[in-house]
Amino acid sequence: MKKKLAWVLALAMAASLTACGGSSTTSTTAAAEEATEAAVETEAAEEEAAETEAAEAVDYSALDPVTLSLADSAAKGAAGSEFDSLIAEKVSEITGGQLTIDTYLNGELGNDVDLIRQMTAGDLDMVGCQIAPLVSFIPELAIFDLPMVFAKYDGDTIHNVLNGDTETAAALSEAYNAQGLQILGFLQNATYRLTTSNVDLPDLASFQGLQIRTMENSNHMAFWTAIGAEPTPLAWAEVYFALQSGTIDAEENAADTVVGANLQEVQSTLACTNHILYCNQISINKDVYDALDPAYQAALNQAVDEAMAEMRTELVEIDSSNKAILEEAGMNIIEYDDAFFDEVLAIQGVQDLYADIDEATNGLASTLQAELAQ
């Protein structure tokens, strides 16, 4: 009833504004749009309040206790690791300790690919990780590999497309389900993966021949190859020593991960290439999720939503504060202007990668771009 009322009010306000004499078409349209946006915000707030009220009304003590396992390979202190811990904390609070999550962080149970395989096999319930290692399991996630596709949008716009009522979000959910998984949420706030190097990277030409460590993701490797670098997949545990010994020149990661691994000790440059959105996903084995009591499902979803809301407010600060730490440690910070990004996107190899990803995802890459631009 409240939803209908919100929309009725929005339409009524829009209609009354249209009928008022002396108002221009532009101002009338703008006012109508503001009224509609206000109604949407009211609806979202009411839905969230209703979900919270429903969760509080559940007698979790009447349910059998359940313990889930959640693993992540993110470095200690990284946003992904903090996100996982916050979800575990919140789900326990919501259910009075009836639903608990045991966390295994910092690669305790293996690297990302190991963890995903364990989750799909049912040996591990939940996995938190960045997107890249999941692409080989869920091809549709290759849309996140489009170089710089998110760079010009704010965190709210990206959040609404990835987690809201959109074609992109629905398609990604179906893609997870097809692989026996359930997506619970994508965490980001328009911060990005950056490049650290032991050589200066002032312009596109300086990337020629750069020996850079990447994750095991063919699209990432294709991007670096297209701009002239020489990508090398390497286990995260080996990266510090490879950089220290000069086996590789560079690597790419978010600022907090760089600080967590102390890469400022073996790298001199932080280049803000902003090539890939710094996004963490949290997912669960679908059979495990479906077997949960609906009340526990709702509690888990609520915990993820609340943790995401809290973490999103922190992500920008995490990014800026960690960049400051790296700069204070002596790293040279390089910021690029729009001309640099335009130059990268004009490279034929990068354009070919966009076309290949769109074809591989059955047009989902185009859908993503269209919904971001709306």
What are the SSEs and their pairings?
Elements (H helix, E strand, L loop, with lengths): L1 H18 L5 H33 L8 E6 L7 H17 L3 E6 L7 H10 L4 E5 L24 H9 L3 H12 L2 E7 L6 E4 L13 E4 L3 H9 L3 E4 L2 H10 L4 E4 L1 H6 L8 E4 L7 E6 H6 L2 H35 L3 E4 L2 H8 L2 H13 L3 H10 L1
Parallel strand pairs: 1-2, 1-3, 6-7, 6-8, 9-11
Antiparallel strand pairs: 3-10, 4-10, 5-8, 5-9
Helix pairs in contact: 1-2, 3-11, 7-13
What does this structure look like?
With 374 residues, the protein is α/β, with parallel strands linked by helices. The chain has three domains: 1-17 and 26-47; 63-142 and 150-187 and 282-317, D-Maltodextrin-Binding Protein, domain 2 (3-Layer(aba) Sandwich); 194-277 and 318-364, Bacterial extracellular solute-binding protein, family 7 (D-Maltodextrin-Binding Protein, domain 2), CATH 3.40.190.170. It is built from 14 helices and eleven strands. The chain has helices at 2-19, 25-57, 79-95, 112-121, 155-163, 167-178, 218-226, 236-245, 255-260, 286-291, 294-328, 338-345, 348-360, 364-373; strands spanning 66-71, 99-104, 126-130, 181-187, 194-197, 211-214, 230-233, 250-253, 269-272, 280-285, 332-335. A six-stranded mixed sheet has the order 7-6-8-5-9-11, with helices on both faces. A five-stranded mixed sheet has the order 2-1-3-10-4, sandwiched between helices. Helix 3 links the parallel strand 1 (66-71) and strand 2 (99-104). Helix 7 packs antiparallel against helix 13. The longest helix is centred in the C-terminal third of the chain and has 35 residues, at 294-328. The chain is globular, with a radius of gyration of 22 Å. The two termini are 28 Å apart.
